[in-house]
Design brief:
The chain has 223 residues and is α+β, with helices and mostly antiparallel strands. Helix content is 21%, strand content 37%.
């Protein structure tokens, strides 16, 4: 479990809208896990935001990425910015991630009406760079992040024809509304949810010491 930080802990840069600029770049090929992908950049993209939900495509229960031979999509990060961080409304919303979705809900009609649905995005992050992959997989809910890259389409023909596109606006919803980003740079501006992380770490260490202590106990036989 991870807590979301208070507005006072957030960088002022999270108030900015994502930056997007149309480009004309040639498509390129890259290989991930033995599969050759074709990537077509469409827009430069620059986002600073607060991570409210996360899905790691390498998790054991994600069967769709495996069936689609899609190892280029490393993680999906659901991110808020702008009015949603300025008003602290994000702390009144429940967020969760599916294999390709970011879901949000609340029992408060007032909170739902105040939540700016144009200041949230589910980002399918692509990378063939092991260093960037490691950083992106280390992201936790509550982290403040900044990444740059390209909104892009990508495809492969490994056994079958596969293609995924991208949203190019923040005002769409539903199927196809997620941003697909081939990442050039990624930074965790500030980690969040530290008390929960420390508690999880402490619990893990106590469990480990308990197991070790049990095994090193001398064997005793009853008469």
């Amino acid at each position: 479990m991870h807590s979301l930080p208070n507005p006072s802990e957030l960088s002022i840069s999270l108030l900015d809208e994502p930056k997007q600029e149309a480009i004309q770049e040639a498509k390129f090929e890259t290989i991930s896990n033995g599969v050759t992908y074709t990537v077509q950049p469409l827009y430069h993209y620059d986002l600073v935001g607060l991570v409210v939900s996360k899905h790691d495509a390498d998790t054991w229960w994600d069967y769709i990425h495996r069936e689609w031979n899609d190892s280029l999509n490393i993680v999906d990060l659901c991110v808020v910015w702008g009015n949603n961080v300025k008003t602290n409304i994000y702390n009144e919303i429940n967020f969760s991630s599916g294999q390709f979705t970011c879901n949000f809900s609340t029992s408060s009609d007032t909170a739902f009406a105040a939540f700016d649905q144009t200041a949230i995005s589910n980002n399918h992050l692509l990378s063939d760079n092991p260093k960037l992959t490691k950083i992106m997989r280390s992201v936790q809910v509550g982290d403040q992040i900044h990444f740059r890259g390209s909104l892009a389409e990508y495809s492969h023909h490994h056994g079958f024809a596969f293609k995924r596109g991208t949203s190019i606006t923040r005002t769409d919803t539903g199927n196809g509304a997620c941003e697909t980003v081939f990442v050039d740079s990624f930074e965790i501006i500030k980690s969040g949810g530290k008390p929960w992380r420390q508690l999880v770490w402490l619990s893990g260490m106590m469990l480990l010491f308990g197991i070790i202590a049990w095994f090193v106990q001398p064997i005793r036989f009853n008469d």
